[in-house]
Specification:
This protein is mainly beta. It is built from 3 helices and 83 strands. Strands 1, 2, 3, 4, 5, 7 and 8 form a 7-stranded antiparallel beta sheet that branches. Strands 6-13-10-15-16 form a 5-stranded antiparallel beta sheet, with no helix packed on it.
Amino acid sequence: MAIRAALLVCILCSISFSSSSAQTDTWGREFYLSLFPNPGANPKGFLHIQSQEATTIEVVYGTSLPQNYDVPARGLTIELTDDWLQRITASKGNSKNGKSAIHVTSETEIQVAISHHQEYSMDATTAIPVTAGGHHYIVPTYDGSSRANIINSGGRTVVRLIPKIDIEGWPAGEERTVLLDEGEVYSVAGKDLSGFEIIASKDESLLELPGPPPPPGGGLIENLDCDPLMVYVGNELTTIAPCPGSSHMLEALPPVAAQGKEYIFLPFIGRESLNYRVVVVGIEATTMMQLTNMYNPSFIATETDTIKLSERIQAGRWPIVIKTSKPVVTSQLGFNHDGCNTGQPLGTVLGGPMAVVQPAFDQATDEAVVYVSEMLGIDAHYFNVAIRTSDVGKFSMSPSVSGVQFQDIGTTGYSYASFQVNPNTQYTLTAPNGRFLVTEYGHGLGRSYARNPYREVNNLNFEMKIEDAAIGEVEDDACLNSVLTFDIDFLKSGLSDEYTRIEWDFGDGETYTGKTFEKTYAEAGIYRISCTLSADEDKCITTHTLYREIEVHEIIADRIEGPQSLCPNTEGIVYTLINDGGYIYDWEVEGGTIVGSNSGESITVNWGGIYANAKVTVYVSNEYGCSLEPITLDVVLEPSDQLEPAFAYGNEEVCFTDRDYQIYYTPEIDGAVFEWIITGGQILSGQGTHEVVVEWLESEGTIYYILTLGDCYGASPELQVKVYDELLPNLSLTDVLCFGADDEKASVVTTGGKFPYTVTWSNGEIGNSTNNLEPGDYTVLIEDDMGCQKELEFTIDEPATLEAEAFARKYCFGQADGEVSVVAQGGVAPYSYHLFNSSGTNNFNLESTSPNFTGLMAGRYTLVVSDVNQCTFNLTIDVEDPSVLELNLISNDPVCPGESNGFIAVEAVGGIGPYSYQWNTNNSGSRLEGIGEGDYTVLVTDSNGCTANMSISKAEMFPKMLFPNSFTPNGDGFNDSFSPISPCIPDYNMIIYDRWGKVVFQELEGKGIWEGTKDGEDMPEGVYAYYVTYENQTSNGTFTENIRGYVRLIR
């Protein structure tokens, strides 16, 4: 790059550092991670979980079902299956990739890292928790298949995408937008994404949506939100000069709000090549940069320049320090030496290309706990530590390692150390009241990785401040009932005018809008506090949420126990503070002397002479600066031998179930004798000592003791004791009446014990009753006002689903003979039935306790089955007519006059076969034979008993003779003779004449047939005349008919 000679001291002198503790870092409870492709045949991935205590996490791989893991203290490494790897890899560039991300949630704070492996190609990164995500990112990647995966961590968000240099098919400066749902991933791909800008937005007008625009004030997209985006950047595969070996790059990117103005870059030791390159991307225009380059220990140069879009600075094997006038984004890239040696294959030298997005020293810390996970293919692991030179003496590391030697980086005010560490080891690095940064990296043959094992990701525009007037600034711990002041510091000028809306959530349900708020926590616990600052335009890019987690501590101390009435000059008396322990104690005594330590939970006192106002006082505090009001016990050093001992300690109110074992005591005094007197019960053990075990036999009683100490003695006041009656809860249950209903409930009425009662149901509800219980087993705990308890178990039953099956039958078409039979099951019997016509074809409507219905016409019916709980089941039933039963006449030819050789054939159709037929002639069957002229009827019956009938008249045929006009007596069996061809032929006279009128054939009163011969001789071909006469007898009388005609004989 072009270097300008002028030193910009006046511009850079305003750079400063925050010395407060981390408000946001890489520890959290929710994380999103997404990978881009790591080209090769056998990808592998590992999820590395670090935890300071045993915990449980839930991991969702893409759209898979959640996986739960028990994480031991220090951590757990999870090998990702091929399926999980595929689900979390955003394979499509410049496109949405669905929910191709890992979602990790934890019960406690954890740290999450991921490593992605191929042969000679790997990288690892530490995930940034959702609480440290943001709405504005600038990408600092390097040439070669660059990628940026953008994950939406919450509600639907519009994402603006703006390249600063041309991407294939995407000109520089051309803004595109995409709508992402929760968990969705958009992956940007290009040769070089340096300077690429990612902005979250709630402005749906930026989207190209189908259809007309929304009305004024209206929106087309519901649930738009400003939840943080999480961004991972790097390269699928790239090489960093000068050697050809290539590698995968993967880094979690902090938002712009976390980027600073001072960066320190250190060489990566333990590799073949120590050379590295730095990418610096300006966030704002006219950013001035002062660069101190340590070319070697004896030559350090400081140069200045204006940062262009993306500066690339090549360094040797020594550190670089960069200071800028405005925040910038940087990444550090380790050179590759693999493949440079001619003839040697890849994977023969230590180290491959590597990259890490370095945090600004503005994000330095005073303590980091780092667990170095063993990485596949990595042979050696290292730390680089950058620290202020003035803090070097404060730095320590546990467990210690050899080779930690800090070197100054010229006059920059910084020093550094690089040293090897062991895998599967947890290191704690500290610099009390100092600041440092740590980078973890490692090398194997042809491969390397680098990551920030711990970094703060504070928003460098704003800082949340919590002050306790008593103990000062609150970092992680606060005190119960202390007045805390919550405030926001604006770290840059002008922000207070721009960010006018400040909304607090204090983690206990209380919220507030405004810059400063005073609050007192009334319960101990861990509280997650958030503060959201937004500008008036309410855009995501001008919305920032700060998070703090504090633990509110309570000191639990009840009273001082010890004798309160003593003879003067009594020695060796012990006083004990009844408390939870582990606190800081400071005792004082008036009227006596403390023997031994005054800083324990107990002290021993030698009392002086007669003194009515003697007392013991203890001041209690804890390591966090919390304290209580002094606790005091008044003591009287009696002027006579008459003592006035205090009440015995023990329960004045006793649960019925605990009445048979109650302990009462008074502080133990060496050499003292205690005589216990009791009414309403009996002493089981301990008489004569300072502690007795009592069984109470009545509902009321008293107990006191007589103390004798040397020549002094006295009786304590009576302690009145009440034993409460047994808790007797009466449980009333209403089971689920109908399957799937929410009408089940339980209630309890309690007597005995001490009113009022607290009733807690195992479904989480509190009160004398609970509703909407799902079927199952439950418990109810009844606790009275003094803590006596009684637990009952019960079961809510649910009937089976009420169901019914109906069987419909219909016998005869058009008849009211339909039947419906119902089989019901489930619910609670007995059942009732309501059947009504729902098609409007008839008015049938009947309620019955019988499951059988008769007399139905065809139609659609609705059946309602009810059980005793009035649960219902509805069913639609179609009662369908069979087809109409009908008779078809198949044959009924007329008979010849006077004959009885006719028949009638019929056929039944419709109804339900088989059929039976009955004729009025007492015949059966579908065919009636041997009949003559007359009237006949037939009745058909189907298998359902449905009937149909038909009347049939059998007529006589009127005889009429017909003759052919030719015949061929050639002996072929076809048309060989001449005779009448009509049915019902009576005897006739037939005479045949030739053309000259000569008779060639004659037959009288018979049924003559001419075969074309005369006297046995064949007659020649030709036309012949015939004359036929006959008498025909019918039911109408006898008549004679004469027929003449011609017939041709053909040979």
